[in-house]
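#dry-run=false #mode=assembly
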Amino acid sequence: MRDSTLKKVWIYFLLTVTSFLVFFPVLYAFMISFMSGPEILQGRFFPEAFNFDNYAKVFDRLPLLKYLLNSFIVSLTVMIGQLAVCSLAAYAFVFIPFKGREFVFFLFISTMMIPWEATMIPNFFTIQKIDWLNTYQGMSLPFFALAFGTFLLRQHFKTIPKELQEASQIAGLSRFAFFWKVILPVSKTSLVTLGAYGFLTTWNMYLWPLLITTNSSVRTVQIGLKQLQSQEMSTDWGVVMAGVIVVIIPTLLLLFIGQKQLQKGLSQGALK
Amino acid sequence: MKKVELIDVSKSYDKQVDVISNIDVTIEPGEFFVLVGPSGCGKSTMLRMIAGLEEITGGIIEIGGKRANHLSPDKRDLSMVFQNYALYPHLTVQQNITFGLDVKKVKKAVQAERANEVAEMLGLSDFLKRKPRELSGGQRQRVALARAIVSEAPICLMDEPLSNLDAKLRAHMRTEIRRIQRKLGITMIYVTHDQVEAMTMGDRIMILHEGKIQQVGKPIDIYNYPANPFVATFIGSPPMNISPARAVPTKSGIFIEDTIHVPMNEEQVAASSARSLLAGIRPEHIKPIVTGTESGNRIQVEVTNVEILGNETVFSFQVGQREWMAKWSGQWDIAIGDQVPILLGSEYFCVFDEETGELIRKPEGLEHLSIAKEVII
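#status=ok
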């Protein structure tokens, strides 16, 4: 009995220490966002007083709301686009037999090996040629077809018994109706996982939006943060951190809301 | 109610080897037809071909007198119950039952009414709001059954629907399915590997082995007059005892292991001369010798194994190289190693041609018991 309590105490102690280590940067950023310039230079961890000057300054200096809105639009578009494209592709790879299916899938998956940066320049030229610089579609469209997402969904679809398809064939369901009415609801957890993944990666994207945007009308928050840092000779870190905290909030919210489904989805993919 | 006709149907996956060949059978309207065979004999494939889930590579399938080779599954007017039930996990029992009706755009009120009716029939009324994962195996099975019944399709296909249930429930569902089929008069095509299911449920059964029909007929006829040694050993438990035999024309009959003599008529002798033969007898036709036993092949055997099942006793013994089994009703006090005198009624023997498997001699004198139509007490 005492042994197990001791063990518990020890485990919780370790968990606390490690979680503190993991969260330290965010925590520190959170603290800095309330400090004035001199305070930061003193290297203190806790601010003297929690004042919101930095937050006011951030919204003053940047069109942060506009950036947040842009980020939100782009992330949401990518998320929906990825879900649509990946689920349809995965459906074809699992439920529609065609010649060379395995080979095509292998080819598809092998694109995961090509780093995104390698394809960035050709993509940039394409977007430039069709005159989509500074547009939402230019920022989101290149990310719709995601090999990882197709793979994830395919793995889940493969666990769905073939008999469900046959039963719905006998019932007279069309292929798309089967996809819509049976496959999608059954694979909800994987779809949520992929959706959250797509949203977060797009939200955190920096390089691509930087490349194809030239004005603040479509720029995303990540570029906004960078702007804060380099606008003046000496960076006002308090303001930057205030911006960071504002930018983190939506992703944290998403994580809290989707946590249960996310966990289920990820572990399912791992175990089966 | 519709008729299903298969005319010289065959199936091959690689266009070289036929996994199913020469299937010629007519399934009558309202009939309970059972496809039975060991695993891998092609019975499920055949069912799926009837359902339209699997292409056929040769022959013709007619459903209700119309050619159905290229009809899609939903145009064939049938319902199907799968081995793993294939319930939609995200829908409630009620939605599962009405799923097919919903697709066919049946009015909501009618849907609910029909679902309630079927649920009532199968004792599912209390579970209509539950999800499949909250049900036991037997209840899921009944939902699958309900889904097939509610469609009111004239033909119902079942692919080993009871194999995931425990023995007691299986026996219960056997009679349940049979009862519903009789009540609704649907044409049922039922696949199973369990010969007991086949015997007890089927109006007619078809035995498949390696993609070929072995025998089609009423269960009792198949049991009594198996067309070949495969059927003889597949149907019946314990299986028919079979040993090689040798024809002796001078004695007008055959000998098994030079000791057991089976008399045959001239015609049968003529058919069997100069061929290697197999002779078989059912375990229940091997009888104990008691006072007043009629004459026949009396032999003394050494018991190698005994199973007492309460109402019957099964024991095995060696006949030459083969192990034979005998089934006596009642509880017999027999121990391993005992010498037991037994009587092999020579009239009960089946004799097969070993190469072609053809039945040369049918067993005779089988007891058909019947209760008189009028009983005066």
